[in-house]
Structures are given as C-alpha cells and as structure tokens.
Amino acid sequence: MEWLHELIFGTGVAHSILILALAISIGILLGKVKIFGVSLGITWILFIGIFFGHLGLGIDENVLQFLKEFGLILFIYSIGMQVGPSFFSSFKQEGLTLNLLATAIVFLGVITAYVIHLITGVPIPTMVGILSGAVTNTPGLGAAQQTYFDMTGQHDPSIAMGYAVAYPLGVVGIILTLIILRYLFRIDFEKESKELEDINASKLTEARMFSLQVQNPAIFGKTIQEIKRLIDCEFVISRVLHADTEALEIPRPDTRLFENDKVLIVSNLKNIGVIEAFIGKRIDMGKSEWDKLDSQLVSRRIVITKPEINGKSIGQLQLRNIYGVNITRVNRAGVDLVADAGLRLQLGDRVTVVGSEAAIANVEQLLGNSLKRLREPNLVAIFIGIALGVLLGSIPFMIPGIPQPVKLGLAGGPLIVSILLSKFGPKFKLVTYTTMSANLMLREIGIAIFLACVGLSAGEGFVETIVNGGYKWIGYGVIITMVPLFIVGIIGRKGFKLNYFTLMGLISGSMTDPPALSYSNAVAGNDVPAVSYATVYPLVMFLRVITAQLMILIFL
C-alpha cells in the first residue's frame, strides 16, 4: 500500500493532480447546496482547499504557484473577452449614471477598508484580502496576491485568509442590503413595473420593423441614398411597393420614392417618430403581408462564419449592388441591431437577408453560414491575447508618489488586452469570437484551479489565525460590504430616482456577485436587474482588479 500513501501524501505529479481534482470536484458539489435560497457556488472550492491544506495535503510550492497564476490568467482573460464588446458602450446614456454610482461603491469600499486599517492596525495585505472577500471579487484577490509577490518576492497567506473569512457574509450582506433598502423605501413592485413599462431604454435601441406610406412632397423623386442623407438617424428600407406599378422591389441606393409608395423600414423604436414625420404616415401592414406580395422574395437568417468577413462593414460588402439583396437586421448576442451601412460585422453575427432564393444562396456562400466553423475554437487569438496581456502586465511604469515602478501584473495586463481585442480585434481581421459555452468553460476551469490553489496555500495556519483574532475580520468585512451599498443605494434612489429593479442590478453588479443577481431577478420577475448588472459589470471588474493592486502599491 506504499503506492497509495505516496499518491495521497507524496509530492509527485500524480499527487498534485489528485489533490487538485478532489478539491475542485468536492467544492463544486457543495456549491450546489443552497441555504435559505443562497449558495456560495464555486467559492466552496476555496474552503475545501483550505481544509486540505490544514490536513497537510499540500502541493509542491512551484507547481502550486504556476497553476494558480495560469488559472488566474485564464479566468481574467475569459472575463475580458465576455465584457469587452459592451465595455465602451456601457458609458452611454443611462449607463453613464449607473457606472458613476458603481464607481462610487468601489471607491467607498476602498476608503472604508483603509479607515478600518488605520483604526485597527490590520496589515494592508490582509485588509485587501478582506475587501476582496467582502465585495465577493475573486480577480481582486488574485491581483493583490500577484502585486504583493512582485513587490516583496514572498507570498502572504493572510490575503487569502481574509478573503475566505469575509466572503460568506459578503454574499449574505449584499442580499440583506437589498432587502433593507426595499423596506426603507417602501417599494411597491407593481408601481415599479408600471414605471418600467412607460420608460424602457433598453428596448428603444432594438431594431423594429414598421411600414410607411410616402406622403412628403419634399422627397418625391429622390433616391434612397439622398433621403438617408437628409434623415440623421440609423434606418434601413427593406422593401418598396411602388404605387403606380404595384411592383415590389428590394431597394438599391439609387431607387427613387414617389407619392403613395409603401415602404418597409427597419430602425430603432426611438427613431420611428423622426422617420415617420419625414417620409409619411404609418400604415398597418405587417411583414407577412409584404411576404405575400411576391412569392419569389424570401427572408433568411445567415450566420457569419467566414473569417474574411470579420470586421468588414455592411457597406463594404455591396450586397445590394452585386447580389440584389438587402440586409435588414443584424442579431448579435441575442439583440437585433439596425443593419446600417457602417455597422461592422463580426464572426457569429446572424444577419437577416431579403432577396430571391438564388441571390440568397450566393450570399450564403459568401458569408459562410456554417455552424460547424463556429464550434471550432480560435486558439490563436486566445493565446496571442494572453501573450500580449502577460507582456503588458510585466512592463514597469512610474506613478508619481509611488517609490517603485508599478506593473499591471498577470491580472491587469490580460484583462486590458482581452477587452481591447474583443472590441477592436475584428477591425484588424483578428477572429476573437468564441461560443458562450467555450468562454464559460475556459473561465470556470481557470477560476476553479485558482481557488483550489489559493485554498491549499492558505490552509496551513488558517484555524490558528482565526482563533488568534481573525474572527474580527468577519465584522470588518460586513462593514465594508454594507456601508458603501447603503450610501450609494440611498443616493441612487433619492437623488437619481432609479427604479428599484435597476438599483438591485446596480448593487449586484457593483459587487460582481451572481448570487445577488439571481436573487434580484427572482424578486423582480423580469430581466431589468440583469440589464443594469451587465451595464456596470465590465467597468467594476476592471476597477476591482486595479484598486486591489493600488492599495498594495500605495499603502504597503
């Protein structure tokens, strides 16, 4: 039985893989258990790792360090690829207000943690760990550990210990804050829902189809190209029914409109009033009626799967002039966008094409429409991005007031590069598309490995630390969790008149906390919390990583 003893308590590769696999699998199984409807999810992996470490089931330090950092890079990079496309657009319109409030929550948390440090004398590295646990942000934990190691050449297990102690009540504290705010403001769910029906900004940006009859003498005889120059908004004229000949036409840029012509238009809801006022009155003529007028015209959704199309604008393809077809809508990540000529297509986009059967078949060959291609992972882009992220994270640069050069590290570098590549990669013909399932798999594997390694490294001495005063960290974590949320929650509701469902998503997103989002969605009965969560998530994730590093760099 010596082989079994070596496998469990040894130091070989088989031992390392066994311990890591057991910690991850047991943690994931326990993560499915809910208490009062709340689960700690895969954070159980951290606690199982701590338990194993306490029992002495450790892994070689060099192997542990490599696995932890590589898992962190996979996790951070996958998050950046997911949030990148919406990162910059999240600063528009109402998103600017939400992001400002979320930023306030982040920095109030940092200030609260620093004040507790000054009052109690808890070391800054430990306090950053408590902060990361209190706001349930694992990337911040990884960034803090990496920065501390870069500065000192040593590891501080108290960072992970602080995180582990503060995390459970961090999850509970966020949900408890939502409940208290609900009763504090005497929220009436029916009233909140009615307000959302009156003003729903997210729906205003989605593409819609409607029919108009041309009645403005100022545009009689003008081409569609000339009309589009006159109307300063995005819209596509999908079909034209000429009044004099009763002929149905897929319009080209040089197609002319005349009195009483009927047109099928695709645009955003917010633009309908402007377009109607300029072209003519709205008529009750649905898409099915247009389809019946000419049986030779068909409408089909085609998936962009050819890499050479990635990054090209709709206007560059010249589909109307070459094939006589019209792209009316582009579905990206479940949202229909107006097929404006300047819109750049990306791999995985689903375009709605209208034209003859033969023409659409030709366009299908041009665009790809091969789901098999989408299932093939684009590993080149992923590893180029990781390499560039590590390079960026390793570059030292000076910040006034900090005595030594600062590095973005293995957390900040890959995060920034992945956001930039996912947003701007298609413009440079770089295929950055990955399926949601592939991204999720990469992310979950990364965070699972990272949490297991953090737990294993912090397990030795964990119980002793808690007994010798570490239990106080729980109270510090609760303060860091709830104080910023209460302050910004009151400001958001009273000062900015935010809908309670939107406020729930804002608070959950500012803590990057999926359990809180799940609770919010269940209570709201709609997707409004998810929308505001997604709006602030990219910026908050970025700020949590950067502020964790800056606290170590500035205050250590």
Q: What is the strand arrangement across the widest sheet?
A: 3-2-4-1-5
Fraction of helical residues:
55-70%
**How many distinct beta strands?**
9
- Largest sheet geometry: 5 strands, antiparallel
Using only CA atoms, what is the Rg?
A: 28 Å
Strand content: 5-15%
The number of helices is 25
Overall average residue pLDDT: 80
Which structural category fits the helices and strands? Answer: alpha+beta
Count of structural domains: 2
Globular, elongated, flat, extended or rod-shaped: what is the shape?
Answer: elongated
Question: What does this entry look like structurally?
Answer:
- This protein has two domains: 60-192 and 382-504 and 515-555, no CATH class; 201-373, Alpha-Beta Plaits.
- 62% of the residues lie in helices and 10% in strands.
- Strand 7 (326-332) and strand 8 form a beta hairpin.
- It is of the alpha+beta class.
- The protein is elongated.
- The protein is built from 25 helices and nine strands.
